[in-house]
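Worked example 2:
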Amino acid sequence: MSLSNLDAPHVAENFLAHRFYAPVPILTQEEATEVVNAFQQFELDSLAHLGKVHRFKAHLLSPDLARIATHPRVLAVATAILGPDVLLWSSDFFVKPGGSTGYVSWHQDSTHAGLDPTDDIVNLWLALTPSKSASGCLRVIAGTHDAGQLTHTNKEDADNMLFFGQTVDVESDSVALPLEAGEASLHSMRIVHGSEPNRSDGPRIGMVLRFIHPSVRQTKARDSATLVAGVDAFNHFDHEPIPTSHFASDAIAAFKDAIRRPSGLG
């Protein structure tokens, strides 16, 4: 299946105006399926090499997944929004099996990230399987990016897929961002968003890539990120290496260092 044309300047203009945008054509459906296969192999290898399944910073261990983070269409969008110099702060996978109860509470990504300023950041959420209303696609509350940092409560709920269970109480209509496999949505750090459980029969698998301009600072502790475009003239982040082989010893060491830092939720 061929891809539709990508007008990155148009995407950037709309994202900057509203702080969310969808859909963005990134991969063919066949390519998305290949990434699903690579991710499933990654989970098996993560268990074998690290003793547990890790979904944060997988791009530091798998060249196949790193290639998605540096895909020409992904970088075309990131550089159109942030400029020629771009760091990948983190990556993550959100997996909802068919008929599962997992959900993502209403929240702002800025709540625990420690990054400042938040305007020089874009989250790219790539659907690797169809992400529709029935399967719990991402939803945003338009305009909330202008409200500043809202007060969140960390709530314990085994079904909440967020690490801290951070939740903000909002009363407003939400906008669904349905995607076909291979399409992406964009959202800012301050826009309130979340997603409902997957009530469909098939899995909903998404990979989120969080890109920042090198001028952004981490306010918590010394952090790390991967330089994916241009140069870093600020030295606010230690640079993470892009892996050249699958679960190589040096890649595992870099990964273990990264997940101890704020970008790895350490």
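DSSP finds six helices and 15 strands in the chain. The two ends are 40 Å apart (CA to CA).
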